[in-house]
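Running co-folding for NAP.
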Amino acid sequence: MEKKNKVFIATSLDGFIADKKGEIDWLHSIPNPDNIDMGYGEFTSQIDALVMGRNTYETICGFDIGWPYQKPVFVLSNSLTSIPEKLKGKVILIKGPLKEVIEQIHEKGFYSLYIDGGRTIQSFLKEDLIDEMTITIIPCLLGGGIPLFNKLPKRLDFECVDSKLYLEKVVQNHFVRKR
Ligand SMILES: NC(=O)c1ccc[n+]([C@@H]2O[C@H](COP(=O)([O-])OP(=O)(O)OC[C@H]3O[C@@H](n4cnc5c(N)ncnc54)[C@H](OP(=O)(O)O)[C@@H]3O)[C@@H](O)[C@H]2O)c1
């Protein structure tokens, strides 16, 4: 089983994943009349489980859409102590040093992991634990907000292995870590 940590995320042109108020409504600023998923379904069909930060988890819980994931979701949090009854069996709280967290998830039989949340992705990158990133760029400048990237202790090289244009306006690049 191939062990991979993958990112699939949308950013603004200036690299933010949420605006100054923490909102993500701008993600839908490009008209998408046929509701194309820009590769999300194919991507999620190839992962075994998700690992997301507490803030992203709480954002999703606040949506009026029900729980959207079919695969197990491991939520990184040092502050949460319980999850709602209706999410038991779907959401697992997890904490600790990232390498140990990943090992625990592998031991449960999940190897291809979808890593989500700004601070979460940044902390994975700090330890060079991201293998692939699919980044969809919404062509707007937010001028501030929650950044996808932050400082790193060392340079990390990636190769762009695919590039697509959706809706004639949205570029999506697929990067693979060059090791
Ligand atoms: N544009 C997009 O496609 C996209 C995708 C995902 C999310 N978002 C947006 O991004 C925002 C959330 O991102 P975020 O950067 O605020 O936070 P995040 O990564 O979702 O969550 C950060 C939290 O995760 C917990 N955590 C525990 N261990 C951690 C570790 N090793 N590394 C990092 N976090 C750890 C901490 O919670 P405790 O304080 O409980 O310890 C920390 O405060 C939301 O607004 C969401 O809507 C956008």
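Result summary
Residues 9-10, 17-18, 22, 24, 27, 52-56, 59, 76-80, 95, 98, 116-120, 123, 146 surround NAP (CB under 6 Å).
The first strand starts at residue 4 and ends at 12.
Job closed.
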